[in-house]
Structures are given as structure tokens and as C-alpha cells.
């Protein structure tokens, strides 16, 4: 899912389009990814995870080969939308599945699985950079097509297809009987988390989506930008693991608020710095600050809503976070085209981050109590 960011400058040059148009493939990738989180998440509630993963691997192999044949930015964008849909299989469906297997250490388990795509984004830019520089972005897509069929397809059969829901029913009864004074239906909690997810990820997308292009503008080149993206995502892996442990101790809502606040402060650090060394440091700080935000939503859903709805509920909330990434990725490119710099785009992200914090604060003062009707 991250490869489109790494090849963005190359695609922009080949198709001779502006920055906003070059961001369109990423935007549609995120839209597809958002829809996939919800619909494949619902499918994972009904079918076994192994079958869903195997079908996804076959589809992605074919789609990356198809995308490599693109002759226009529009065709590439449309294929990327379908690629985004199937890449979602390895996010919300896997996260919801692992959440069913754990109770005591659920936060850490969720964080480990959620770290997979960040860890991938931290190593693949290094592995593919020589291919990109010497053979172009189309060859990168062929390499990924082969890697998916050789790695993802066989591993899909290593996962246990189903877990018995009987042991989970006792936990669900306990969660539904929690004391508290904030009465919310499951639907309303889901909607609030969705709004919060939209806000935090519009903010998150500006550095993640545009760091490579930003470095090219500053004259550092796409290699340096790819390294900063990798550093950012590796910091996100560390942050997610720490946040998982923290969520097991203080709960998902407080962990979410902490991560959102740290992300907002990290965004402010991008405003005064434009030299290479400072941007490396700020990118690492940004990764360390925001990595635990998205897994916190899944932890909150599992803390307060029934396990049988995990795939659909987590899928919806994570769909909204991805919509935020998609909207923010396009919005930052559009603001850049209007203003000629990323400063205003950063301020736009900061304001969206404030929206996220405001929503989370409404859930914080007292323990949530979910009404037994969750629809």
C-alpha cells in the first residue's frame, strides 16, 4: 500500500501532471483500502481468514501486473483503487481476527499485527530503491507481484481459519455490564470513533504521503525522501508496540488521546525546519508519536462492543481512518498547488488533529457504558 508514495515523483514526471493529479493514485488507493477494511472485515466475520488472505494474494499479484501496463494517470489510479481494496485484507480483518484470540494482552496483540504494514513500509523502499532508480517504477510493480505470490499466498494457509466464539461470550457479558455514566449505543460509539479517525488521519497523511515529494522540492532527491518515510514508519512500529502495552494498562481511550496529542505536537515541528538533518529527526519523532493511534481504535471497539461484530465494527472505524488518509493526501497536494509550499497544508493537518482531540475528550471524562442494543 505504500509503494505509490515512493513512486509518486517518477509517475508525475512520466505522465507530466501537476502534484495534485500525481496524488490521485494514492487517493484512490486509500479509498479502495477504506472500502476493503469494511467489506472484507464483514466477510471475515462469516468466512475463514485463510481463504480471504489467499484470494487477496492472487488478486494483488494480477493487479500489480496490470498497473505496470498503465499508459495514463487515470488508468493507474483506477487500478490502484482496486489494489487498495485488496491490501485491506492484511489490516482490519487481520486485526479483528487477532483481537478474538486475546483478552489479557489484547492491546499488544493488536499492536503487533497493526505494525505489519508500517514495518513493510519501512523496509520495502530500501529494497526497491535500486530497482526504481535503474529500471523504473513499472519494474518495481513486477517485483511486488512476484513477492506477493511467493510470500503472502503460502503464509495464508498457516493461519487457523476459525476460533470458537464460546469462550468469548463471557467476556462480552462482562463488557456490556460495565458501570459508567456515558450512555452510548454501539452505533453511536462507532460513529464517534469514525469522526475521530477521520480527523487524526487527515493530519497524519500530510507527512506520510508527501515526505518524498517534499524532499524532491527541497533538492534532497527521492532517495532521501524514501529514507525519511522508512524512518517515519519504523518509528511507527516502535510506537505501536509501546502503545499496545500501554493500552493493556490504561485502556484504549486514554492511549488514543495520548497518541493524538503527541502527533499534533510533532506536526508543529515540521513548520520551522527545512534542512536535511532536522527533517530526518522530525520524521523519526513524528513516527514515534503517531504509530499507536490507529490500533487504539480497534482496542476500544473490542473493549466495549461484542466480539461477533468485531470485523464489521473495526472495519468501519479503520475505514474512516483510511478515508482521512485519502482525503488528507489529496488535500495536501491541492493546497500545495494553490500556495506553492507545504506550510499551509501542515496547518490544515493541525486543525484536523484538533478535531480528533476534541472528539476523544468527549469519551474520556468517565468510563463508557454501552447500551445493550448495539445497533
Task: Describe the structure in your own words.
The structure is a single chain. The protein has helices spanning 3-6, 8-15, 19-22, 24-46, 49-67, 73-87, 92-101, 106-135, 137-156, 166-176, 186-217, 222-250, 252-270, 276-290, 293-304, 310-339, 343-363; strands at residues 182-184, 368-370. It has 17 helices and 2 strands. The protein has a single domain (3-365), classed as Up-down Bundle (Growth Hormone, Chain: A). The longest helix has 32 residues, at 186-217. It is globular.
What topology emerges from the helices and strands here?
Blueprint: H1 3-6, H2 8-15, H3 19-22, H4 24-46, H5 49-67, H6 73-87, H7 92-101, H8 106-135, H9 137-156, H10 166-176, E1 182-184, H11 186-217, H12 222-250, H13 252-270, H14 276-290, H15 293-304, H16 310-339, H17 343-363, E2 368-370
Parallel strand pairs: 1-2
Helix pairs in contact: 4-6, 4-7, 4-16, 5-6, 5-9, 7-8, 7-15, 7-16, 8-9, 8-12, 8-15, 11-12, 11-13, 11-15, 11-16, 11-17, 12-13, 12-14, 12-15, 13-14, 13-15, 13-17, 15-16, 16-17
